[in-house]
Design a protein that fits this description.
Elements (H helix, E strand, L loop, with lengths): L6 E6 L16 E2 L2 E2 H9 L6 E4 L14 E2 L9 H15 L5 E6 L9 H12 L3 E6 L2 E10 L3 H11 L4 H5 L4 E6 L13 H13 L2
Parallel strand pairs: 1-4, 1-6, 4-5, 7-9
Antiparallel strand pairs: 2-3, 6-8, 7-8
Helix pairs in contact: 2-4
Length: 207
């Protein structure tokens, strides 16, 4: 991890499995592991520490290891509030870290070079944000963020009632890092029972 600046990772684990019968989506199992376990395994080697962003009782996620942090701004559900809570946590607990990478807990096939390539993209474009793209689709919550953005993000949430990650990042220069979608999309996300079944097939097809 010497080829890039120190980077904290946040797994956005607050999603509800409404299209899968309810409950914590991150705790659904895939190939004998929870989605959250798979995302942690992908991200831990790439980051200088991880935190989990989730509201509600933190005890349900305590066994996974990383600190569980709730939204630092109340009544603002959604990924932007989760990202802000991680920026705040980093500023308070990891002053050595100037960068945060956010990922979703329902993406079990995240690339092993995610953090490195996002840093390469933001450095090449002198940007404060870098975002992952695959197959022409922009994955706004799978991004690299400068810790210095937290005050502006808080203002957008509190003063402007802005909840859209895409609308907020449109104010900045956003560097793009692209990945191929073959043999499968590394940002495949599990939203439905059918998605979970497709992910099982992808795992079964791997060597």
């Amino acid at each position: 991890m010497t080829d890039r600046p120190a980077t904290l990772g946040v797994v956005l684990a607050g999603g509800l499995a409404r299209r899968m019968g309810g409950g914590d989506k991150a705790l659904r199992t895939l190939g004998g592991q929870t989605l959250l376990e798979r995302v942690i395994a992908r991200m831990a080697p790439q980051c200088d520490g991880l935190v989990l962003s989730a509201n509600g009782d933190p005890a349900r996620l305590a066994a996974f290891g990383p600190p569980v942090i709730a939204d630092s701004v109340s009544d603002f559900p959604g990924p932007l509030a989760g990202i802000l809570s991680a920026l705040d946590w980093a500023a308070a607990h990891r002053p050595d870290v100037r960068w945060l990478v956010s990922v979703a807990a329902d993406c079990p096939f995240l690339p092993h070079d995610l953090v490195t390539r996002l840093h390469q993209a933001r450095a090449a474009n002198d940007a404060e944000i870098a975002t992952a793209v695959s197959g022409g689709q922009v994955h706004h919550v799978i991004s690299l963020w400068s810790i210095d953005l937290r005050d502006a993000m808080r203002h957008a949430l509190v003063a402007e009632n802005m909840r859209s990650v895409h609308r907020w990042t449109a104010r900045y220069t956003v560097a793009i890092a692209e990945w191929p979608v073959a043999p499968h999309d590394p940002f495949f996300n599990v939203n439905t029972t059918e998605d979970l079944e497709a992910a099982e097939r992808l795992i079964a097809a791997q060597p």
